[in-house]
Amino acid sequence: MEQNRFRSTVKWLGAFSDKIIVHCPNCNSKAQLLRRWAEYRKYNDPYDFQCNHCHTEVRELEKHIYSINRNCPFCAEIMTYKSAPTTKIKKEIEVSCDQCQKKLCYPPKIEIIKEWISKGKTVELHYWYETKYKGEWFWALNEEHLEYLEQFIASKLRERSLYRSGMMLVDKLPQFIKDKKNRDSLLKTISKLKEK
Ligand SMILES: [Zn+2]
Ligand SMILES: [Zn+2]
């Protein structure tokens, strides 16, 4: 679940996602992910992991999830298939119909996911600036992002135009952050995170 969140949010937080502060999976210190611009890819930017405390190596591994969702051309039964994440490249997937047992090949839909590998094992990376707030996750990618959220929460007017600047982040913020009655306690939460 953590990994899902990580993947899906980085995409629309483009303006803040050059550097992501995380817990080192090896020593738990403050570590960072730095975007590798030389290899810019639209949907799945590559990152370099860096822990200046233990210098452990964490690398990214791209995996594919293949899926098929079609009606059987012989009997119209719905055929669904979803693979486990794999590094294999597949252009076609063979599916068999549960109803009429026919086997068919189709080009699959491909979802690209990213895993983090350290010492030969898959590890999870967690944001450094992350805490539970009234049962919800409050988190920020880095200091600048935390600062942005703090300014947004502290501002009385919260003018949209002020926070737009091409990012449209305000629209994506969860309701508990926009809720005025949470203002003071959220600001306290942020100052605690800043001291971390
Ligand atoms: Zn470390
Ligand atoms: Zn069939």
Order of helices and strands: HEEEEEEEEEEEHHHHH
Return Rg in Å. Answer: 21 Å
Bound small-molecule species: zinc ion
Average pLDDT reading = 85
Low-confidence stretches: 1-11, 161-168
Q: Roughly how much helix do the residues carry, as a percent range?
A: 25-40%
How many separate domains?
2
Q: Based on DSSP secondary structure assignment, what is the total number of beta strands? A: 11
The main pleated sheet reads as: 4 strands, antiparallel
Strand order of the largest sheet: 5-4-8-9
Count the DSSP helices. Answer: 6
Question: Which word captures the global form?
Answer: extended
Q: Class by helix and strand content?
A: alpha+beta
Distance between the termini: 24 Å
Q: Strand-residue fraction?
A: 25-35%
List keywords for this structure.
196 residues; four-stranded antiparallel sheet; three-stranded antiparallel sheet; 6 helices; disordered N terminus
What this model shows, in words?
This protein has a 4-stranded antiparallel β-sheet, with no helix packed on it. It has a 3-stranded antiparallel β-sheet with strand order 1-2-3, with no helix packed on it. It has a two-stranded antiparallel ribbon with strand order 6-7. It has 2 domains: 2-58 and 125-195, no CATH class; 63-122. It has helices spanning 2-12, 143-154, 160-164, 169-172, 175-178, 183-195; strands spanning 19-23, 30-35, 47-50, 59-71, 78-82, 93-96, 103-106, 109-118, 121-123, 129-133, 136-140. The longest helix is centred in the C-terminal third of the chain and has 13 residues, at 183-195. 25% of the residues lie in helices and 33% in strands. The chain starts with a helix and ends with a helix. It binds zinc ion (2 copies). Residues 24, 26-27, 29, 31, 51, 53-54, 56 line the site of one zinc ion (ZN).
